[in-house]
Amino acid sequence: MPKLTLLRGLAVAFVLITAAMFAWQNPGVLGSRLTPAEVDRYLAQADHNLAIPPAEKAEMLTRLRAWAFADDGKPVYMLNLMRFYPQVRAFPGGPPASMTPAQANAYYESKAVPMLLPMGGSAPFMGRPQGQNVLPYDARGDHWSRMLLIRYPNRRAFLQLITDPRYPAIMPYKLASLEIVLAPFTAEMMMPDYTQATAALLLIIFLGVGWWRAERRKPD
């Protein structure tokens, strides 16, 4: 009986942990959408944080405002499609000229990714191209250097990142090293890694069979 009680306790604990993780990664389920006051506050802080040319900043903030006001509370997948400059550009607070663009961006990523974790963000994919675009489009659609796919649990998390007090110190490293396509997407379908999914399924079966056998061995 004590063993069965322990198993039931573990089962309840696992269910609660899973539910908490789901709520953390999908806060929109609880109706957590950005309010107009939040949008105004975040964008005012972003205006202060982002050290980019005024015209570019104004356009960026206009687009961010429209995107934030359309918040649906759902997770966001932010595509980062990057092309390194031949050498780092002079930029206030940016990397030293001795750094390569790849080194400057690597420094940015090493500091930015840990900022994502407390807010539930993650990087499902980070990688380099294997070659050129296999379709003969204009050169502007080719010769990419790096691609990241960043998952934010909601739009609020992205705004929290760019308004983090530590962010202004690292953003110049990114802007000085590359040009970037930064586009938000909604996930319509996500395929799990087959190896991990198979391992998880087999573990569930193994534990289920063990539980079933333990139940059968109980005295009547």
UniProtKB/TrEMBL annotation:
Annotated protein name in UniProt: DUF1330 domain-containing protein
Bilayer-spanning residue ranges: 194-212
Keywords from the named record: Membrane, Transmembrane, Transmembrane helix
Entry superkingdom: Bacteria
InterPro entries, per database record: Dimeric_a/b-barrel
